[in-house]
Amino acid sequence: MRQHVNPLSKYFQEIESIPKIEQIFKNSGLPTHLDIGCASGEFLFQLAEKNKNWNYLGIEIREKLIINAKNKLKEQSIDNLYFIFGNADNLLKNWIVQYPDRILKSASINFPDPWFKKKHHKRRILQAEFLNRLALIMSNQSLLFIKSDVEELYQYMNSLISNTLIFEKVKNKNLNCLETFNPSKIKTEREKYAISKQLPIFQAVYKKIINL
Ligand SMILES: C[S@@+](CC[C@H](N)C(=O)[O-])C[C@H]1O[C@@H](n2cnc3c(N)ncnc32)[C@H](O)[C@@H]1O
């Protein structure tokens, strides 16, 4: 079992600087999707290859995974995908100061680390302040997708997002059809594992309803 990375450790205070979106993607006018905690980036590689009419950004705190993903990206000529290493919270703090544009059409937090112990809940990626920062880079009416195979974590994320007033839960029986960034319904690595082990998958979609 892999050791979880403590996002509050001093090491992650130093962050990679993110270039301007125009320097990242060949066509910066395309809709952009951000996947937070993208691990090896396999999900994003598949998305970027299949959907040339979208740009994809991945953030991941495990440095080795991002080094490998960046190397793989260099070997292949994919111009609609970019990876950023670091603690997502610190990256967003910097991002909103550098680039005030609301560039994201959608974002996903797929199967985040649960940090089960109460004293470790502060290490969870989704915190009220993080959500406010994320909202600042999301365009109006953009969508936020969450998935987890841990019901307690799902409930935690759901109540946090539902309590903000910035987002409204989308009441749609078929949530998958809202994944315009993922028309082929590609699964993340953890999602494939959860399906193979017949674990329940809890998911929700929220629309940004306040223009910040
Ligand atoms: C359980 S894995 C899920 C990976 C992938 N989203 C999936 O569904 O297969 C959670 C990922 O989030 C990353 N992560 C955890 N905290 C993070 C943070 N604060 N910033 C960026 N990534 C983080 C972990 O290193 C790990 O790769």
Question: In terms of topology, how is this protein built?
Answer:
Elements: H1 21-24, E1 32-36, H2 42-50, E2 55-60, H3 63-75, E3 81-85, H4 88-98, E4 104-110, H5 128-136, E5 138-148, H6 151-162, E6 167-169, H7 189-196, E7 202-208
Parallel strand pairs: 1-2, 1-4, 2-3, 4-5
Antiparallel strand pairs: 5-7, 6-7
Bound molecules: S-adenosylmethionine.
Describe the structure.
The protein has seven helices and seven strands. It is an alpha/beta fold. It has one domain: Rossmann fold, CATH 3.40.50.150. It has a seven-stranded mixed β-sheet with strand order 3-2-1-4-5-7-6, sandwiched between helices. Helix 4 runs parallel beside helix 5. The chain is globular. The model has no long low-confidence stretch (mean pLDDT 93). Bound molecules: S-adenosylmethionine (SAM). S-adenosylmethionine binds at residues 5, 7, 37-39, 59-62, 87-89, 110-113, 125, 188-191.
Keywords:
single chain; binds S-adenosylmethionine; Rossmann fold; 21% strand; alpha/beta; 212 residues; 7 helices; 31% helix; seven-stranded mixed beta sheet; 7 strands
